[in-house]
Amino acid sequence: MPVRYLLILGAFLISMLMWIDRACIAAAESDIREDLGFTDNQMAWVMGAFTLGYALFQVPSGKLAGRFGPRAVMTGVCIAWSLFTGLTGVLRSFAGLVGVRFLFGMGEAGGYPTTSQAISSWLPVQERGITNSLIFSGGRLGAALAMPGVVWLIAVTGGWQQAFFFLGGVGLFVAIAWWLLFRDLPEKHFAVSDREKEHIIKNRSATSKEEEATLTPPKTTLRQILSTPTMWMLMVQYVAHNFTFFFVASWFFKYIRDGYSLTKEQAGFYAMFPLLCGVAGNWLAGLMVDYLYSKGHWNLSRRLPAIIGFILAAIGMSTCIQMGTVETAVAAMCLAIFGSDMVLSPSWTTCLDIGGKNAGVVSGAMNMVGNLGAFSTALAFPYLNSWAGSHEPFFYLAAGLNVVAILMWLAIRPDTPISD
Asked: What domains, with CATH codes, occur in the chain?
């Protein structure tokens, strides 16, 4: 088996654990709120603090991955987020919990930018679409497992605090395994054959093979990166994606539990289905990206899956609020998240396209601004309901953002590198 496939497996498992740790607070929300006496609006800030820390440290962590390499940075990322996951179960004040969730977000911020940096060195261009899909589907699978799994873990371990301690310990184990088994470049890995090494180097870039062989990053500044129209359009469309997706990873559990009078176990069971549909959307989009690219349709291979995805997400979000039963509401959300997750592979593959050796910074910039959408979701859902007396404004706002994202993808140029 090619060693790069083991890299994909490792990144898949890390992605899964990242989302288990970040989504577990949604499944534990009622236990935390009842134990600590928090209101819905206070829990909104606890959830939102993660997304704010996560967003603000995307670019710095991407730069660290480019400078020090994904081996050291990912090890540090795993250690940081695992420690703050465990500390979540220690603190009992509102300010303390908001602070530690902000630090948890900072710790996880380097996960996907560092993964992008590893992919840009380890994967041929023609394999990156499905690779991104597989890695992100690991996150969705982790979030899906977190919904019923954390409810079960809380019951087994004796409380929500103990569940967070356990998950923190698992993360520390993963950090050790990554450091021992991964290397920044396939050229330096002890198990990579000469044949695989040659194949990776030959196909690592769609443009300049000679420049790629040096693996020396061009002097592209953050200001230059942020001055390109494609970069800004990528960030705007990723806001729409995150605004939609983070709802199902944060408030959807509570929405169906309270709206349809479910038990925690029932809500956890129903809440995992949209996330599983996200896995399917990831895989479909990844296959589309690589297939259309192999046929010579570079721009279309990124644009078409994303546009289809945002259309489905807009339909799903606008219809979910109209449903009268939990089954039909979940079905509408399944459509929305299936579509929303079709956006991931083209988005992150485009970051590799236009970023090249700056892939960590470019993907970090997109994820930074995009996760401000997740931060907005955490606050908008309870606050809009308090203001309007209904959840309808939130769902229609999400649908509208997805329509805006469609317009962005009609103009995004994946075939134009930032260096040009």
From this structure: 3-204+224-409 (1.20.1250.20)
Largest CA distance in the chain: 64
Helices vs strands, H then E, count in the chain = 20, 0
User: How many residues are present in the chain?
Assistant: 420
Tokens representing residue 102 in the block:
């902000």
- The model's confidence at residue 129, banded by pLDDT at 50, 70 and 90, is confident
Residue 214 has pLDDT above 60, yes or no: no
First to last CA, the chain: 37
Would you list the DSSP string of 18-31?
Answer: HHHHHHHHHHTHHH
If you write DSSP's letter for every residue of 290-318 in order, what string do you get? HHHHHTT-HHHHHHHHHHHHHHHHHHHHH
Distance CA 207, CA 204 (A): 9
Assigned token pair, 64 = 């660290």
CA 109 to chain centre: 10
Q: Coil, strand, or helix at residue 340?
A: helix
Q: Which of 207, 151, 180, 204 is nearest to 20 (CA)?
A: 151
CA distance 168 to 162: 10
Q: What angle do CA 352, 400, 58 make, to 5 degrees?
A: 35
CB-based contact 58:92 (threshold 8 Å):
no
Give me the pLDDT at residue 207, please: 55
What is the tens place of the pLDDT at every residue in 3-53?
A: 999 989 999 999 999 989 988 888 888 899 899 999 988 999 998 999 899
Determine which of 72-86, 87-101, 193-207, 294-308 has the lowest per-residue pLDDT on average. Answer: 193-207
Taking the mean position of all CA atoms in its chain, how far away is CA 61?
Answer: 15
- This prediction has a pTM of 0.81
| Residue range 295-327, pLDDT digits in tens | 888 889 999 999 999 999 999 999 999 999 999
Q: Could you count the other beta carbons within 10 Å of the beta carbon of residue 2? A: 15
> In this structure, are residues 103 and 6 in contact, taking their beta carbons and an 8 Å threshold?
no
Q: Supply the pLDDT for residue 223.
A: 77
* Closest to 280 (Cα-Cα) out of 259, 309, 253: 309
How far apart (Å, rounded) are the C-alpha atoms in residues 385 and 193?
A: 58
